[in-house]
Amino acid sequence: MDKLHRRTWGLAVASVLLAGVGAARAEFPEKPVTLVVPFAAGGPSDKIARDLAEALRKKLNQTVIVENVGGAGGTLGAAKVATASADGYTLLVHHIGFATAPTLYRKLPYKGIDDFAYLGLINEAPSTLIGRTTLPAKSFADLRKWIAADPTKVNLAHAGVGSASHLCGLMLQSALKTELTTVPYKGTGPAMTDLMGGTVDLMCEQATNAVPQIEGDKVRAFAVTSKERMKLPSLASLPTLAESGLPDFGVTVWHGLYAPKNTPAPVLAKLNEALRGALKDPELIKRQEALGITVVSDARVEPAAHKKFVEAEVMRWAKVIQAAGSYAD
């Protein structure tokens, strides 16, 4: 083979290889994508992830699997994604605990929020302050007086250290300037069961899980934790805690989507595009709104704005956790 032919052949091979690389990128995903939920099946985050998985499936034209990896307040599931292959096939759906873990836990099984690539914010949900139906208080004003009479006798349940109910409970105690007896559970399910059964007094729980119990008169609702009232017609009259005497109170439980650090930029772009499309899916929006949840449609669906938002949340919650002295090993 002469020099000219060798050069022509080499250029042809290079062109084929480059085309192959481009095709491989364009074909992502070539196999099922897994959404890791760092909490047990059946909980609020799990429900959200399953709705999102179906909407993403339509955009990616590929199966999207939800895998529950619970334990240690969500840090085990997060660690699994942080150490997974950076190829876009293993993603993390995590809530506000993603931003509180660096302060809440003395040792994390991963380095922190910089171990992830940010894909976009998914939603924001108010929590509700709910209580057993046999409580003597009918309103938040009555509840506040009842708590003040003897805080040591008031039991506040939560779904485990690092859970949304735990974090909201910390904020509530800080706002009330009162320390209550907290009762940790291994998940939202058993905590809610005991609240409905009257074993514990109060719980600060995501609307995702609380709305059906409120509407079924299985628990008593005192207020919502967001700055604005819920849009659900059945709960539109439920006041916010800010309206009820805690003017600076405002807690929403948000969820975001993440990939391992160093995931290739073209893959991240494809995933973000799919996420943005999924968040416009009418069925997803309908399911979320039925639970009082707002699907994010602002700039935070983009990676840079999502990361900036999370960094601000880290700073905000660090102050609350440090003031409460609430840490986990």
Automatic annotation (TrEMBL):
Record Gene3D superfamilies: Bordetella uptake gene, domain 1 (3.40.190.150), Periplasmic binding protein-like II (3.40.190.10)
Keyword field: Signal
One Pfam family matching this protein: TctC
Superkingdom, taxonomy of origin: Bacteria
Signal peptide segment: 1-26
Family: Belongs to the UPF0065 (bug) family.
Stored PANTHER family: BLR1237 PROTEIN, TRICARBOXYLATE-BINDING PROTEIN
Protein's recorded name: ABC transporter substrate-binding protein
